[in-house]
Amino acid sequence: MVFSKNVHEDVKVNIMAMWGGSNTQQFEKYLGLPPMVGRSKQRVFADIKQKLWQKIQMWKGNLLSQGGKEILLKAVAMSIPTYAMSYFLLPKTLCHEMEMMMARFWWGNQAQERKIHWVGWQKLSVYKFRGGLGFKNLYDFNISLLAKQVWRLLTNCDSLLYKIFKARYFPKSSLFEAKIGFNSSYLWKGIHSALPLLKAGCVRRVGNGVETNLFKDHWIPGIQPSVLLGEMVGHPQENLQV
What we know:
By secondary structure, this protein is mainly α. It has helices at residues 9-19, 41-44, 46-59, 66-75, 82-85, 92-107, 121-124, 138-155, 160-169, 186-193, 195-201, 225-234, 236-241. The protein folds into four domains: 9-36, no CATH class; 46-136, no CATH class; 138-202, no CATH class; 203-242, no CATH class.
């Protein structure tokens, strides 16, 4: 639990005794993740960048082939931020800095660390069957991991996390219609940023049709609601006959 400075010590003790929690500071870690994210996102997630830098420094002293570098970057380096990316949206600048660290390791060698980057990281991130090397774009990978959290919320409405988000951010609407809102948590902002990605690939199962909106929900595969609405408006007489 994180308390404000205005909370008296006796009140803290009573609350922690009631809920069985322990007091922590803002920038401490709980299960490897920050319990609170303040304004300085770079400071909160700086340890991820530090761990990645330490790993790369350990590898620089070894004679590695390009294949060995590829395996290390994909299997070890890119797995370091994965746990945090599953819950938080990391800043784009932080993702770019980590990508540049991996790119310098990929193009460098023992004799000369900084060498010319003949191909940009964006092209290296393309799938192999399209001419790239299959490295991950960290920011896009971050969004995809958060989309998995959105899917869990959609498919598990009885979970405590869904009930909390439902009561706080979308009490009178569905998850796809939820807004960021005022003074929302950083966790919710990350989940909300992944909503468009999941919404673009989801099709609503109509069922009994009670909770299906004809002109807002994507319920026909391959046809967006806006296209369907345009057809209805453009041909009202035909639709009336149907």
